Amino acid sequence: MSGVLVVLEQRAGVWNKMSFEAVAASVALAEKLDVGWSAAVLHGPSTGPGGWETGGKKPDAVYAVEHALLQEYTADGYVIALEQLVKKVGPGYVIFPHTYQVRDFAPKLATRFGQVLISDVTAIHDGPFFVRQLLQGKLNADYKQTAAGPCFVSVQAGSFRASEEAGEAVTAEVFAPEIVAEQIRSKPGELFRESAQTVDLSVAPVIVSVGRGIGEQENIGIVQELADALGAELAASRPICDNGWLPMERQVGSSGQTVSPKLYLAVGISGAIQHLVGMKGSKAVIAINKDENAPIFEVADFGVVGDLFEIVPELTKAVLAAKS
Amino acid sequence: MKILVAIKQVPERDAQIHVAADGKWIGEEDLSYTINEPDAYALEEALQLKEKNGGEVVVVCAGPERVTSTLREALAKGADRAIHIEADDLGERDTLGIAQMLADAMKAEAPDLILTGLQSDDLGLGQTGVVLAELLGMPHATIIMQVEVIGSGLKVKRELEDGWFQHVEMPLPALLTIQSGGNKLRYATLMGIKKAKTKETATVAASAAGAKAVSLEKVYLPEKQKKTEMLTGTAAEVAAKLVEKLKFEVRVI
User: What is the residue extent of each domain of chain A?
Assistant: First the structure.
C-alpha cells in the first residue's frame, strides 16, 4: 500500500471544480510522504471530461473508470467500481472532494475496506494528522488512521487552493470495472430546480444576513430595516429558511448560494461550516453575535459581542444619519 | 411499515464548551443535552409517513443513561416504542463501531425503513447512516427532503448543491438520511407526554467495541483565520464605530 489516489468528480462531462482542490491536497500529501499519486474519474462510455492538465508533481497514472452503468451516478455503481480500482491500484490514501455526491457513497466504500472515511478535512499536518471541525466549527480536531489498509479522506471546499499552473496534458488509462445492472438498487431521476431563482445573491455588493439568533420570525423586520438602510440584499443561514421565515432562495451556504460581496454583515449567525463555505469569499465581514466564541468571529474583520436587539436598531439609525 | 429512527443525543447548541483535561473531548460536567437537530427531522418524517401509510415508529438511541430523556421526548411526540442501547463508551468507538452497534441492535427488528439525520451537530462526520445501510445490506440515499411510498418502494427527493434536486427511487427495506427543513417539526402535546409514560422503552446491551480504524487524537480551539477587530461599548457607541468602518474602511456608505 503506497501512494495517493485522488477521485475527481464530473457530471455530464463537466468537472466539479472542487475536484482540483482535492488534487492539490493529494499532491501536497504525496510530497509530504514522498510517494507518488494518481487520479481517477468515473463516467459512462464517451462522456468523460476528456484530457486534463496538471501542474506541479506529475501523476503516476490517471484512470478513466468507464462503464455504461456509471453514466448516471448511483452509490452502488460508484462503490463497486471504486472498490475494484482501489484493489488494483493499492493506494495508501484515497482522497475525495467533500461534495454531496461523495458524502453519499464514500462512507460505504470505506466500510467495504473496514475503514472509516475522515470527512470534511480542512488541513493535513505532519503525521499525517487530518484536521476537521467539530461542534459546528467551535473546535478543531486532529484525526489519525489507526488501522492498516487504505485511508479514506474527503477535503472541504475552499481548504486547499487548486493549482493554477498550466501543466502537461495527461492521457488517461481506461479501467473497465465489472458491474451488472442487478447490483444497482436505486434508480436516479433527472436533476431539477424548484423554481427559477429570482434573487441572485452572488452579484449583491452588500449583504445583511440573519441567523438563528433572531429568535422569532417577527424579529426579522429589524434586520430588514438595516438591510434597507444599507441598500443591501437580505440573506439568511439555513435554519431561518428551514423554518420558512425567509424563502430558500435567500439562503447562503453549501446548500444555498455562494456569495462574495464587498460587505457581509452577519447578524445572529454562529457560523457553522456549512454557512462559512458560502460566504468566506466576502471582502469584508462584520459579525454581531452574543457568543464571543461563535466561529463567525474567526472569519470576521470586525466583531461585536452583544445583544443584536439593541445593536441592530442603533446601527440602522446611525447608517441613516450618516447617509442623510 | 415499520420505521426505525436512529437518534443521537448531542450537547445543546448554545452550550459554553471547554476542552477536557485529557485534550480528547470537551468537558461534560455542566453540559445539557438535546436531540441532534437533523435527527428531529428524521423523526418528524417517520411520524408523517406513519400517519399517511400506517405502521410503527421505533426510536433507537445509543449512549449512557442520560439519553433516555431524549427517547422519552420522541415517545411524547408520537413514536410507538423506544430502544435504548446502553453504552458508556461511545468515544471509544469510531463511525464503523457505532454503526455496527446500531446494526446489531436493529437487525432483529427487521425494519422496512430506517431514518436518521444527515449528520450530527457534535462530530459532524455525516456517515453513520450510510455505513449502517452497508452493514445491513440495504440501499440508501442521503440528504433527503421528501419521502413518498410508491408501490413496494420509495421515491425520495435528494438535495444537491446550489439549489438542485433529484428524485431517486429504491426498493424497501432502505435507509435514508434526512436533511433539515423538509417538514415543520411538531411539539410534544400534553396528551403525548402523558401517553409516553405508558410506552415501552427496551434496554439492550451494546455489542462489544472492536478495534478502531481512525481515532480522534486531540481537540483544540481553532486559530483565527483573520485578525478580528472587536468593537466594544454601548449599543450607540458600537453603532457609531461600525458606521466609521463602513464609511472609511469597507466603503459601502
Answer: 4-183, 201-323
